[in-house]
Amino acid sequence: MPVKNRFAELLPEITAWRRDFHENPELLYEVHRTAAKVAGLLREFGCDEVVEGIGQTGVVGVIRGRSDTAGRVVGLRADMDALPIVEQTGAAHASKVPGKMHACGHDGHTAMLLGAAKYLAETRNFDGTAVVIFQPAEEGGGGGKAMVDDGMMERWGIQEVYGMHNMPGFPVGSFAIRPGPMMAATDQFDIVVTGKGGHAAKPHDCIDTTLVASHIVVAMQQIASRNVDPLKQVVVSICTFRTESEAYNVIPQTVVLRGTVRSLDPGVRDLAEARVKAVAEGIAAAHGATVGISYIRGYPVTMNTPENTDYAVAVAQAVSGQVDTAVAPMMGGEDFSYMLNARPGAYIFLGNGDSAMVHHPAYDFDDNAIPFGSSWYAGMVESRMPAA
């Protein structure tokens, strides 16, 4: 594939961008330095339009092909934000910002899409318009939703959209994708159990919130095992159990439980929410306690359109030859889902080799993956909008 050779030539330059982003991580929407550098580079490349401040701190670049006979517009997305983690890689390009690091490879995603943008602006060997999307706040901030809500799709007439994420454990330069659900919906909840506190030596005078909360924790596991179709996936995890007292001899008045629900099907998502509430309320009532429940829906399911998945597979095979087209869905969340809710498209994994897992302090993006990722981004534009 001719794109591949150009990205081998550009590898030192793209690697330098990536390591600069890695040294200077920023969180959520506070990606001001990163966004400014991205916008500056897009202007240097000669993009036809560069707009900052979409979805607060997102950046959009527009590259028009040599012709535009059909009015086609394809969007390509990368995320820019880092994580609040203390880096332990020992790399020469390690984070210079205490308590922050690019532990998920968004530095690599941004650099690869910049490389693709430079190539597309140089060659313009396509019929239509490419829109490169640099998103803030993927790590829990919903930056993808913010950009969609800001009218990005309508403003630039984006018709289909594609995203990519590196994945440790897959060979460098390999790809993995599936049609349908790729990553899970991510919801969270708080349950406040209120009873009657008192002395631990006189439990008969109390309504023991630790006992009630413990029953709730155990019973929540029946949602996956007894309420949901065994052929469908759901994860219900209670991750925090906090009482108002740390004393050895006090039955606390309240206990707070916090947890998450992950699902791949909208019907299962609705069922799980209903069961979390019903289980907590029923057990509390049976013990004479009360509960207050706050249930917050997070990112929706990342759902690949089957037709667009086929397009993504074809380009990946041309770039790499190593493509798993039936990778198992992952129960992590991804706010590219909001863009896929707005437009058809697909989300693909790119192998990062035998590295630490994402969100680990020893993780680092493998720069050897750059030519493959940049080639795929550029290849999606050229294949979906072939030159007239």
Automatic annotation (TrEMBL):
Residues 189-281 form the Peptidase M20 dimerisation domain. SUPFAM superfamilies: Bacterial exopeptidase dimerisation domain, Zn-dependent exopeptidases. GO terms for molecular function: metal ion binding; N-acetyldiaminopimelate deacetylase activity. It comes from the Bacteria. The Mn(2+) ion enhances activity. InterPro entries: Amidohydrolase, Bact_exopeptidase_dim_dom, Peptidase_M20, Peptidase_M20_dimer. Mn(2+) binds at residues 104, 106, 139, 165, 359. GO terms for biological process: diaminopimelate biosynthetic process. Its cofactor is Mn(2+). Pfam families: M20_dimer (PF07687), Peptidase_M20 (PF01546). Keywords: Hydrolase, Manganese, Metal-binding. PANTHER family: METALLOPEPTIDASE, PUTATIVE (AFU_ORTHOLOGUE AFUA_6G09600)-RELATED (PTHR11014:SF63), PEPTIDASE M20 FAMILY MEMBER (PTHR11014). This is Hippurate hydrolase.
